[in-house]
Amino acid sequence: MLSPEELRALPKVALHDHLDGGLRPATVVEHCAENGHELPTTDPEKLGRWFFESADSGSLVRYLEGFAHTTAAMQTRDQLVRVAREFVLDQAADGVVYAEARWAPEQHLEKGLTPEAAVEAVRDGLAEGMAQAEAAGRAIVATQIVTAMRHVDEPTTDIAELALAYRDDSVVGYDIAGAEMGFRPTRFQASFDLLRRNNAHFTIHAGEADGPKSMWEAVQLCGAQRIGHGVRVCEDIEDFWGDRPRLGRFAAFVRDQQIPLEVCPTSNLQTGVAKSLDRHPVGRLAELGFNVTIHCDNRLMSGTSLSEEFAKLSETFGWGFAEVEAVTVAAMRAAFLHHDEREALVEGLIRPAFHAARHEARA
């Protein structure tokens, strides 16, 4: 069984981490005071507990309510720069060597920022964070994924166009997020078609609050290269928990194509995807050969870190160095980076670090 301390020393990859879901509570307090936004409490420690307890409801819709406070703390250029910088520093402190910060520019325009200015502020904050982390001996690569909110009345291609405009300037992909039930991925079909025509990367939230049909649309109609969460693919597997699981045609396709699943265990427990970690589909999906990767979703709301997520999986499913390395390599190879950059991190950093950790453990 691996401890959070052991895991913190190992390289990790964060593909599914929302920028507005990982703020430091003290930053939320300071920025909301600047913006005149009222919080449940202005004590940072109590506020951190409030976010976790509010998110721990068993409902995705209620889980999302706390974001009204974090987005209120991200409305000026300086605020976005600081939040992005702290995102990188907090990830680096946890041993993360590559991180994609996903966020929705349309939610950060209340103080007069344009979507372009907001993207540039996050870009600059990520760059500051990377420089500070490297100076402290914790090198990390951090990029951003711009997200459209799936529940808008009339979907447009605006955010997809923004992703294309900044694709060589820190933005590596596109996503849709927010309430899943009742807001199918195909509502944004025009955006996905535009991105595919321009050879761009995108992931889609699916298979969290809704079932395999939502995932099927994301993969087969929209062309998702990765699936955010995706654990409800298990509903297309007969006898999933038994001795003779039988994959349905869609589940078999997802596994055969090795479509990466961005699984966020603690967040899934909070939103009711599973009642307990030992009954979370992630362990069984990994056993069945699905391309599982592990992430935090929202570190503030879930009161977690990537090291802590792996520690829980180690305790629950007996994951050791081999399993953690496998999903870390899978995540790195699923990153929205060029192939040579991904492989340089896999072969030059991730594999050597795990080899050294195993050697030290045996000694």
Features of the shown structure:
363 residues; alpha/beta; TIM Barrel; four-stranded parallel sheet; 17 helices; 10 strands; metal ion binding; Ado/ade_deaminase
Average pLDDT over all residues? 96
Number of helices: 17
Radius of gyration: 19 Å
From N to C, what is the helix and strand string?
HEHHHHHEHEHEHEHEEEHEHHEHHHH
Strand order of the largest sheet: 1-2-3-4
CATH class reads Alpha Beta
Largest sheet: 4 strands, parallel
What number of domains? 1
The fraction of residues assigned to DSSP E strands is 5-15%
List segments where confidence is low: pLDDT < 50 over at least 5 consecutive residues. none
Terminal residue distance: 17 Å
Oligomeric assembly: single chain
What fold name stands as the CATH topology?
TIM Barrel
| Helicity, as a percent range | 40-55%
Structural class: alpha/beta
User: Looking at the structure, what is the overall shape?
Assistant: globular
Please identify, by name, the CATH architecture: Alpha-Beta Barrel
User: How many strand units?
Assistant: 10
Describe it for me?
- By secondary structure, the chain is α/β, with parallel strands linked by helices.
- It has one domain: Alpha-Beta Barrel (TIM Barrel).
- The chain contains 17 helices and 10 strands.
- It has helices at residues 4-8, 25-35, 44-55, 60-63, 67-72, 77-93, 115-135, 158-165, 189-197, 212-221, 249-256, 265-270, 282-287, 299-302, 306-317, 321-334, 339-362, and strands at residues 12-18, 96-103, 141-149, 171-177, 203-206, 226-229, 237-238, 246-247, 261-263, 292-294.
- The strands form 3 sheets. The protein has a 4-stranded parallel sheet, sandwiched between helices. A 4-stranded parallel sheet has the order 5-6-9-10.
- β7 and β8 form a beta hairpin.
- The longest helix is centred in the C-terminal third of the chain and has 24 residues, at 339-362.
- The model has no long low-confidence stretch (mean pLDDT 96).
